[in-house]
Amino acid sequence: MDYVRAFLAGGAxxxxxxxxxxxxKMMPGRVMVTLVVTGCILGCLGLYEPFARWAGAGATVxxxxxxNTLWKGVREGLSADGLLGVFKGGFTxxxxxxxxxxxxxxxGSLIFRxxxx
Length: 117
Hints:
The structure is a single chain. The protein has helices at 2-23, 28-44, 48-55, 57-60, 63-81, 83-112. With 117 residues, it is mostly helical. The chain has one domain (2-112). It is globular and about 45 Å long.
């Protein structure tokens, strides 16, 4: 049942994003920023954690989950370091994911030799 919930939640998020791309004049970069900011806001309001517990990877893998991770880092940084933690916390919380994406992206480009179009 966990897989079904993850599929439904992730599919609903992707479907809403596709509607935004098809029906509005928003560019993909703005839609991505909207998703990250929405994840931050939902985390701040306390709505994201119950949704993530229900949906599992369907909620934590998309950009909404990245926004929530940033929010949690900022919250922890603020409580530990004060105002400086607001700037430091998000980077600390998301450093592993960003580093992994960069490293594996680079390794993939070495292995598969992409060509410019």
